[in-house]
Amino acid sequence: MTHLTEDDLTLLYYGELSEAAAGSARAHLGACQTCRVEQEKLQQVFAMVDTCPVPEPAHGFETQVWRRLQPALRAAGQPRRASLTERLRNWLVPSRGWAMGGAVAAVVLIAFALGRYWQPERPAGPVNETARPIAQESLRERILLSALSDHFDRTQAMLVELTSASPAPTVDISGEQRRAHDLLAATRIYRRAATEAGDRTVRDVLEALERVLVEVDVSPSQLSAYELRSLQNRIEEQELLFKVRVASAGVRQREQSTRPAAARGSAGA
Amino acid sequence: MPERSRSEAPRRAALPDSTAAVLPQETPADAITRARAGDPEAFRELVERHSRAVFRVAFRITGRAEDAEDVVQETFLRAYRQLDRFESRANFGTWLHRIAANCAVDLLRARPRREMNEEPETLERLGGADAGIALPSPERALFGRQIVERVTRALDGLTDMERAAFTLRHFEGLSIEDISRTLGLRTNATKHSIFRAVKKMRRELKPFLGTL
Question: What is the pTM of this model?
Fold first, then answer.
């Protein structure tokens, strides 16, 4: 008789076994005293875990949360309003879908061109010598950060799909490949920009990302279960999703911090 | 104690009261629509309706009230910025909890591991564990505190991913598939995070088994 493992009992407890597997586990439990004892112990562990309390926030917590949020929300602007990046993207590519990566790349190119136009030298002459470059610099940074944040979001979505693809004898990744191909161009541009700007954190994430995107791009469209698992393992081993998520959060924070500064710069101009 | 069935929808119905309170309440679609249109009062309504529940999720994952408060702020900020991505057919509370889980995991990863607490009083010292003796009331109270300390310590001993996956499965009632999507993991990786968490919890709580 093969006994149930602790993992089996855990899945059974959480209702995560298939109907058939759960039925067979229950039948075994009905006949096996050893496994019933193990199940009982596990259930006691869960019962003890349930006794662990969560502190209740103080009275007025909701109001406090709202008060602290308000300045950040004001800085974030209207929630439904599309960002400049999104508006540019919609303008460039009216049809949504897989072509989105290409649109992002186009936006990156625009942002990059804007960056090049503004970055190397400040306009000579007495007109707006201080205020204008500050406003332009802020705007440029916001455009870049907004586009980069968007880029990270889309890359993350693609990676999540890839890493959560269910193993099957043959898995078609052609959709992910097309997106990886489009994302790759933007990733390279961003990586170069980050290198030039001396932003090592973003550069390192983009480098790691680039390697994986290249791998996805050059892979066959049809992967065997083993090939898919190997690819998924490589992505997981590098903790790429985590790195992208952290980098994305950092970029969003920086983008947000440029907003009030930009507003002040414009007001002073 | 019966197992938690996959068909229990919502699964949290089987959870104790303290956990059931974590459940997202149904949010009027009207408030979301108005918030999306830029009505700050509508968003305030959403914040007030969900902030306590988000705090509980955040606390379960981070284990610290001050961290949980930061997570609440970040969660609502992200939600505000992503309101246009929320699908109206989905449950707003569930959507918010996923954002909260992500924020909490990001925070855990960003902060250094906290030092472990001092060794709490052991049950063995109380002489009740393996003897299977029914403890009198004051001792039971102490015993209860010991369990809470041990559970807290066990949770602190989990890796960030184990803690997040276990919390979302055990306290939040998310399916392993949903947790995988939320944390950006493969299903098997999520399962193993939960299995490792359970093993560690069980090891930590071993002295108490047979005493409930």
Answer: 0.51
Question: Which residues in chain B have Cβ-Cβ distances shorter than 8 Å to A53?
Answer: 18, 148
- Are B34 and B46 in contact, with CB atoms under 8 Å apart? no
Most confident region among A92-96, A133-137, B133-137 by mean pLDDT: A133-137
Quote the pLDDT of residue A136: 59
Those of residues 83-102 in B touching chain A at CB distance below 8 A are 83-84, 102
What is the total count of domains within chain B? 1
Task: Answer whether residue B138 is part of any domain.
Answer: no
pLDDT band at A22 (very low <50, low <70, confident <90, very high): very high
Q: In this structure, what is the dihedral angle of CA atoms B80, B85, B90, B93, given to the nearest 10 degrees?
A: -20
Task: Judge whether B23 lies within some domain.
Answer: no
Task: Give me the CATH number covering residue B51.
Answer: 1.10.1740.10
Q: How far is A15 from chain B (nearest CA, A)?
A: 4
Buried-state track A196-234, b at ≥16 Cβ within 10 A, e below 16: eeebeebbebbebbbebbeebbebeeebeeeebbebbee
Separation CA A146–CA A108 (nearest Å):
10
Contacts of A50 in chain B (CB under 8 A): 15-16, 18-19
Q: How far is B88 from chain A (nearest CA, A)?
A: 14
Tokens of residue B11, six digits: 């699964």
Range of the domain at B91: 28-114
3-class secondary structure per residue, chain A: CCCCCHHHHHHHHCCCCCHHHHHHHHHHHHHCHHHHHHHHHHHHHHHHHHCCCCCCCCCCHHHHHHHHHHHHHHHHCCCCCCCHHHHHHHHHCCCCCCCHHHHHHHHHHHHHHHHHHHCCCCCCCCCCCCHHHHHHHHHHHHHHHHHHHHHHHHHHHHHHHHHCCCCCCEEECHHHHHHHHHHHHHHHHHHHHHHHHCCHHHHHHHHHHHHHHHHHHHCCCEEEHHHHHHHHHHHHHCCHHHHHHHHHHHHHHHHHHHHHHHHHHHHHC
Does residue B77 belong to any structural domain of this protein?
Answer: yes
- Residue B32 counted as domain residue: yes
Averaged pLDDT of chain A: 73
Nearest to B48 among A52, A66, A79 (CB): A66
